[in-house]
Amino acid sequence: MDELANTEQGLLVRIGLRWYRVTGQPRITVSAAGAPQLGGEYRLRPASAPSAAQLAEGAAGQDPEAARDPLAYLYRLQQNRLSAQGEAVGIEFHRIGEQAQEACLVLLFGHVKGLIPGREADTGDGLVGLQRLLGQRVEFQVLHVDPEAALALLSRKAARLQKREKVEGRVGQVLHAVVRSVLAGGAFLDVALGVEAFLRAHDYDGRYLADLRRFCHVGDEFEVAVTEVSPGRLLVSRAALLPDPWEALAQRYQQGGFYPATVLAPTPNRAYLMLELPDGTLCYARHPAVGDPEIGTRVTVRLRALSRERRRLYVSVVGVRS
Which range marks the domain in which residue 57 is found? Predict the structure, then answer.
């Protein structure tokens, strides 16, 4: 590998006179001479040569100052508690201080390697979260610089916390959001302020949903309202900007009507069963006195009550469907 550049096309390498785009899960390390080296699992695909302006940004596609004098650049960020961005080019395992060896996200600044340990990455899901950041521009603050080892300890958590602190007092603000990952109980979003927010499943459209992944997908974009801001925590709601779904549910379901449902699980106190209606809405039935219905069993339920105050549907299981 003769040259490395990060551009709008992605991560590019030059071998001889030809440029290639790197895909897969590349791992970039720095040799003793300070040259970047490519490893890990990756593929090379032919690509057009980057422009002179893109190459001028430095070997890792950074701020030009970082390429000219990386140590001075990192010291300036540390002393002034400034946040910056860099490309996440790999994951390596390092021992930081007295801590046990742990996975670290790697950013390059000329001959200096920046490390974001998993505990400072603020992803919440360990190595999987770090892998999700590979190839993305990651915001960070500098915690420590070791010029002899040509290493810098970085924190994504500190940079994100600083941004969250700047939005204090903005509860109710409407922001544009992009879905970055989805769980059954909620989704992580990037919002217009440049911070990550969490959307709970019942704040998606106002209903209690069994699995948000059926309705919300990575890359979806929508407006949300900020509902809670505190250090390290930003909650938002999409439902707050929508008409109350319980008006529609009252028209969709009739008290005394029969409907298909699927058994999900007992409630924590085992007083009720949680079931899911075909449109994804949760409903509750009294738990049978003996035995546990098998999860996934398809049943027929009869609507006993729709409580707008408690925002719940109460049903009775009247039969098992084949």
Answer: 1-166
130 φ, ψ (degrees, to nearest 5): -65, -40
Q: Which two tokens stand for residue 44?
A: 């090379």
Q: What pLDDT, on a 0 to 100 scale, did the predictor assign at position 140? A: 93
Half-sphere exposure in the Cβ direction for 249 (13 Å, CA): 24
**Angle (CA) 137 139 144, round 5°:** 120
Q: Are 160 and 127 in contact, with CB atoms under 8 Å apart? A: no
154 with 93, same domain?
yes
CB-side exposure of 269: number of CA atoms within 13 Å?
A: 5
Helix (H, G, I), strand (E, B) or coil at 121: helix
CB atoms within 10 A of CB 70: 26
The CATH number assigned to the domain holding 141 equals 2.40.50.140
Dihedral sign (CA 242, 248, 250, 252): negative
Direct distance between the N- and C-terminal alpha carbons of the chain, in angstroms, rounded to an integer: 61
Residue whose pair of structure tokens reads 């549910």 in the numeric block: 249
| Residue where a domain terminates, one of 212, 241, 270 | 241
One-letter amino acid at 234 equals L
pLDDT at 195 over 50: yes
Whether the per-residue pLDDT at 205 is higher than 90: the answer is: no
- Residues contacting residue 9 through CB under 8 Å, at least 6 positions apart: 21, 47, 48, 50
Domain count, the chain: 3
Amino acid (1-letter code) at residue 148:
E
Amino acid code (one letter) for 261: A
According to DSSP, residue 294 is labeled: P
Give residues with Cβ within 8 angstroms of 175, minimum separation 6. Answer: 191, 192, 193, 197, 223, 224, 225, 226, 236
Distance, in Å, from the CA atom of 175 to the CA atom of 298, rounded to the nearest integer, reads 40
The answer, yes or no, to whether residue 113 has pLDDT greater than 50, is yes
Largest CA distance in the chain: 77
Are 88 and 228 members of one domain? no
Last residue of some domain: 166, 195, 226? 166
Q: Tokens standing for 255?
A: 């008290």
